[in-house]
């Protein structure tokens, strides 16, 4: 399993789209920094993310980065789970590889 971390906004960059084209069903995507905007209800990537989620991919957003941008769980796609720093480390430890997208 690969942990993909994305730190660029879906509204300003193609980074999340590039990542999603390479995500396998067993992979995990963690949205950090401005990448958390990819998890909002109005995300242009919702269709691709939902399709991958239905195939088994996991989607997470870093709680501290959501808070720093005035977002909370009410703004997020239902299948995106929030994680804290400790859970971020646990995701990285469980992964065979970590791929950063920036």
Could you characterize the architecture of this molecule?
The two termini are 20 Å apart. With 102 residues, the chain is of the alpha/beta class. The radius of gyration is 12 Å and the shape is globular. The longest helix is centred in the middle third of the chain and has 10 residues, at 46-55. It contains four helices and five strands; from the N terminus they run βαβαβαβαβ. It has helices at 15-20, 46-55, 63-68, 85-94, and strands spanning 2-6, 28-31, 58-62, 80-83, 97-101. The protein has a five-stranded parallel β-sheet with strand order 4-3-2-1-5. It has one domain: Hypothetical Protein Ychn, Chain: A. The protein is 31% helix and 23% strand.
Helices and strands in order:
Elements: E1 2-6, H1 15-20, E2 28-31, H2 46-55, E3 58-62, H3 63-68, E4 80-83, H4 85-94, E5 97-101
Parallel strand pairs: 1-2, 1-5, 2-3, 3-4
Quick structural overview:
With 102 residues, this protein is an alpha/beta fold. It has helices at residues 15-20, 46-55, 63-68, 85-94, and strands spanning 2-6, 28-31, 58-62, 80-83, 97-101. It has 4 helices and 5 strands; from the N terminus they run βαβαβαβαβ.
